[in-house]
Amino acid sequence: MKRTAKVLLFLAALVPAGLLVRGIFTGDLGINPAETIQLETGRWTFKFLLLTLAVTPVRRLTGWNVVIQFRRMLGLFAFFYATLHFSSYWAFDLVFAFGRLFTDIAKRPFILMGFLAWLAMLPLAITSTKGWIRRLGRNWARLHMLIYVAAVCAAIHFAWKVKVFTGDPVLYAGAVAVLLAFRGVWAARRAAHTAR
User: Fold this and answer.
1) Average pLDDT value over all residues in the chain
2) Is 16:44 a contact under the CB 8 Å cutoff?
3) How far apart are CA 127 and CA 92, in angstroms?
4) What is the mean pLDDT of the segment spanning 158-175?
5) Pair 9, 55: CB distance under 8 Å
6) 0.90 exceeded by the pTM?
7) What distances in angstroms separate CA 178 from CA 12, 78, 133, 193, one per listed residue?
8) Percent of the chain surpassing pLDDT 70
9) Full domain range(s) for residue 157
10) Helix locations, the chain, DSSP H
């Protein structure tokens, strides 16, 4: 049953990428396909980041411990779509020019925030295997707190990209704030309980 659920989640998570590939071949990505690819991969990166962050609150509030088995896959798909997002920007906007990439990062704050979000996710993806979990021990959990940095940077990146803090940027940033606040409140309650 668990294996089936993981397979179904894996296939569902690939659907957005599959739709983009289909759109490339059918010409259904609008008048600016490059922009559509960048926007969609960016949105799905954020959605998977939020889903990954939501696993722990869902488990703690509902007692459904089974959801924890999906967190790693959700996190890896967040990195997958982040890499597609970053690669599409580098390919379509900069034509894979290294020099222009670092100049753009230095000059455009929203690009810097997006790059920092991707960098924060990179070590999480690399160390997501059971082998790395064993090697790092308790440090693994500390390292994976970088997902909070990635989520905050992603929220800033999105808001600065659209230049208007209304609509979706507010919803995504609000979701990040709620999920991080939950962790803060939970940690404070545990500390208070331990003190008592």
Assistant:
1) 90
2) yes
3) 30
4) 85
5) no
6) yes
7) 26, 19, 28, 22
8) 96
9) 2-195
10) 2-26, 33-62, 71-92, 98-107, 109-126, 130-136, 138-143, 146-162, 168-195
